[in-house]
Amino acid sequence: MASSDLHELAESIVDDAYDADATGFDDGLWATLEKSGLARLTLPEAAGGSEGSFDDAATLLEVAGAYGARVPLVETDLLGGWLAHAAGLEVPDGPLVGVAATDGASSTGAGAAAGGGAPDSALSGADDGTVSGTLARVPWGRSVAAVVALVGERVVVLDPSVAEITEGTNVAEEPRDTLMYSGATPLASGSAPPGAAQELALRAALGRSLLLAGAARGALARSIGYAGERVQFGRPIGKFQAVQQQLAEAGSEVAAAAAASGAAARTAAENGFAASSTAFAVAAAKARCGEAATAVARIAHQVHGAIGFTREHDLRVVTTRLWAWRDEDGNDAYWNDRVGTAALDAGEYGLWPLVTGSP
Questions:
Q1: Strongest mean pLDDT among 98-107, 126-135, 238-247
Q2: 158 - beta bridge partners?
Q3: Strand partners, 84
Q4: Buried b / exposed e across 48-76, counting CB within 10 Å, b at 16+?
């Protein structure tokens, strides 16, 4: 399917389901995404997927971000589904989430717990095969059909219904729940693929970057529309140079976020997640999209004025997600540190090839 056709299909599906006043999991939208083959877009056919590319995923996730779609697309396709399939397990039906937690700390580091979970998540396996421990701030934990968790060198599929769930949310009111397991028997278990923890973290950051790029675009579109409608001193505020300058700045941030996240998706598709070029591109994308989120949200609320801060206005659907997502799966400081470390490691002769992806 051509990118333009996929964008049109995704936008029609997500737009039809849009409800600015609703919170929590949108089961109607999820059912439609499942039927259309978009819920598991990049997974192979053998895993129930549509064998789409990362460019396809970028198109879908940017649309989902622009509308604040209340479904776990990244968590199901890029994380939970991938992790289960990579471990040789049957991918469970329904919405999923993939997390990494082992030995009392997230295996992806304090800055970037894969799947959005908190870095103090920890699971441990007993000799009898059962699993105990806590998964903190699990995205959509109360709504998913299964949790696919990386525990040391094993991948286990857990039933969330046997966990003690403490419900929580991020600032955008998306579920971020704590799941406590005590002697839970996994639904399935397999060996983790090499480098699973690093890839899971990079996949989570890439998915979040694409959502951020979409949410930034959604905030800009709402701001341009409002500036053309709001009349003050006898003309739309969009005619004033100061407002035009703000919108132009927001536009440049949206373009930068789209370029950085799109480049990271293409690099991952071409080189795989084990490549240093992919790690660098994803780190740069998550950091740049986080910076764009801050700037675009600020400008959008400045353009809208006081009305934009009310719960009744749908601007909050995207700006609260910009604020929440910029800190999930590693914040700006974490990924900028990764960019700086990679640049220093590359040295004076390796930096340019690292940045450009050239030999």
A1: 238-247
A2: 147
A3: none
A4: bbbebebebbbbbbbbbbbbbbbbbbbbb
Q: What is the CATH code for 196-356?
A: 1.20.140.10
Question: Which stretch of DSSP H or E encloses residue 231?
Answer: strand 231-232
Parallel/antiparallel/unpaired status of strands 146-151 and 96-100: parallel
Asked if pLDDT for residue 118 goes beyond 70, the answer is no
- Residue 324: CB atoms within 10 A of its CB come to 21
Work out the number of other CB atoms within 10 angstroms of the CB of residue 231. 11
Secondary structure letter of residue 75 according to DSSP: I
Q: According to the model, what pLDDT value does residue 112 have?
A: 46
- The pLDDT tens digits for 160-214 are 999 999 999 999 999 999 999 999 999 999 999 999 999 999 999 999 999 999 9
Count Cβ atoms below 10 Å from residue 335 Cβ, excluding itself: 24
Q: Within its chain, how far is the Cα of 226 from the centroid?
A: 27
Residues 5, 10, 15, 21, Cα dihedral to 10°: -160
Residue type, 25: F
Question: Is residue 3 within 8 Å of residue 56, measured between CB atoms?
Answer: yes
Q: How far is CA 244 from CA 93, 228, 247, 254, 304, in A?
A: 48, 11, 5, 15, 13
**The predicted structure's pLDDT at residue 293:** 98
